Amino acid sequence: xxxxxxxxxxxxxxxxxxxxxxxxxxxxxxxxxxxxxxxxxxxxxxxxxxxxxxxxxxxxxxxxxxxxxxxxxxxxxxxxxxxxxxxxxxxxxxxxxxxxxxxxxxxxxxxxxxxxxxxxxxxxxxxxxxxxxxxxxxxxxxxxxxxxxxxxxxxxxxxxxxxxxxxxxxxxxxxxxxxxxxxxxxxxxxxxxxxxxxxxxxxxxxxx
Length: 208
Description:
By secondary structure, this protein is an all-alpha fold. Helices cover 95% and strands 0% of the residues.
């Protein structure tokens, strides 16, 4: 639609140039006609030739008048088309602005939801780390305070501690993955927001 708008503007400019050129030629022909009339008065022997030239000039003037009328009609038609295209462009731009505002609102809602989810995962991760530290300290204290612990008890306790540590590490790995995914989603939404803002700025520039 914008290319058609530009093309019509170019045709309009070209039509104005043709109209101006036709007016200049018309003035020159009028001057030639006047010169020929003066020459006819001065030289009666050239009456027939001059009369033919005058008739030729008159015909050319008629043709130019017809061309000028056609050009003016074309200009009027182009003006109408440009007005229609401008209205459509304005309507499309308004629709795009409304869609962008709705999209920005949706993005803001998604930002809030993802941030809340990320904060929850970070809290869970911190709680898991704190709980693991607490259990480790508790087990170390229990080992230090127990004097009758056998080798078998120590092996069993270490096995349980390792199992708990593995579960804790796996849980922390999942939580870190969820936090990374939330951050990626936030960055993606921010990038989309920048792209749409640039598109809106570009449309404003084209309209101006």
